[in-house]
Amino acid sequence: MARVALPGDPLLAPPSSSTLHLGPGLSISTAPASRGTKGKERAVEPTATRAGLLGHLSQGDKERWWIEGTMKRYTPNPPEPVLGIVVARHAEGYRVDIGSSQGASLDALAFEGATKRNKPNLKVGTLVYAHLLSTPPFSEPEISCVDPSTQKASGFGELQGGFLIRGVELGRCRALLAPKNPVLSKLGARFPFEVAVGMNGRVWVKAAQEGDEEKLVEVIRELKGR
Predict the structure, then answer these.
(1) DSSP string, the chain
(2) Domain ranges, ordered by start, for the chain
(3) pLDDT by residue for the chain (226 residues), tens digit each?
(4) Taking the CB of the first residue and of the last residue of the chain, which one, N or C, has fewer CB atoms within 10 A?
(5) Cα–Cα distances in Å, from 88 out to 46, 91, 103?
(6) Hey, CA dihedral for 112, 89, 130, 104, is it positive or negative?
(7) Per the CATH hierarchy, to which homologous superfamily does domain 81-159 belong?
(8) 186-189: long-range contacts at Cβ-Cβ below 8 A with a sequence spacing of 24 or more?
(9) Which CATH class is domain 163-223?
(10) What is the C-alpha to C-alpha distance for residues 213 and 219, in angstroms, rounded to an integer?
(11) Is the Cβ–Cβ distance between 168 and 224 less than 8 Å?
(12) Per-residue pLDDT, 204
């Protein structure tokens, strides 16, 4: 049964041998050390920063935790993938709307093979698939269209054509990003298509046939619970 978490609630401690990865809605806080502890050591514990259902995924020795909840605005959390729309251009790159309280910064060189002489020329309104690089405390979030592990595009970059679906529940987005999502697998057996899922509640789909694309959009919208 899913556990409901409220802001300030401590996360149930995972096994000490596991590596802890915190997702949206959780942060690390310190608590006074118990009596008898030498020095000024303080206990470190993950706590909830917003209300919602506590999500958990175990992968070998890795424990992933996050808070599922409905939010009007997306809270950036590296290295999540996001779908953004270019809203402004400047000398060194672009400002991109990712649905958060402020736009994200996309460097013009943050594309595979980009150089100062050869870099993408994106127009305002262009849709891009990127991942969050960092979230500096006093500036805009930074995104990139290069996979840091391979230094390749790996599916990130400009998206042309297709249809953008907004407002998809974050839990559904996470499910669609699973390597073997049953819904996408069944649809893929019927007709070829492309899909890009952002953890900012946006999903982009593209199919060769207009009718197939409409079916994709309908299925994703059904997943939204509408």
Answers:
(1) -PPEE-TTPBPPPPPTTSEEEE-TTEEEEEEEPPTT--TT-EEEEEEESS-EEEEEEEETTEEEEEEE---SS----TT-EEEEEEEEEETTEEEEE-SSSSPEEEEEEEETT--SSS---PPTT-EEEEEEEE--TTS--EEEESBTTTTB-TT-EEE-SSEEE----HHHHHHHTSTT-HHHHHHHHHS-EEEEEETTTEEEEEESSHHHHHHHHHHHHHHTT-
(2) 4-68, 81-159, 163-223
(3) 567 877 778 876 554 556 777 777 777 776 555 555 555 545 567 887 777 777 777 766 677 777 776 666 788 888 899 999 999 999 899 999 999 989 999 999 999 999 988 999 999 999 999 999 999 888 899 999 999 888 899 999 999 999 999 988 877 888 898 878 888 888 899 999 999 999 999 999 999 898 999 999 998 888 754 4
(4) N
(5) 37, 11, 10
(6) positive
(7) Nucleic acid-binding proteins (2.40.50.140)
(8) 187/215, 187/216, 187/219
(9) alpha beta
(10) 10
(11) yes
(12) 97
Which amino acid is present at 27?
A: S
Hey, what CATH topology would domain 4-68 get? OB fold (Dihydrolipoamide Acetyltransferase, E2P) (2.40.50)
Q: 4-68 with 163-223: one CATH topology?
A: no
Q: Give the residue carrying structure tokens 């070829």.
A: 192
At which residue do the structure tokens 């809270």 appear?
A: 75
Q: Which two tokens stand for residue 37?
A: 């502890």
pTM listed for this prediction = 0.74
Torsion of CA 28, 29, 35, 36, to 10 degrees: 50
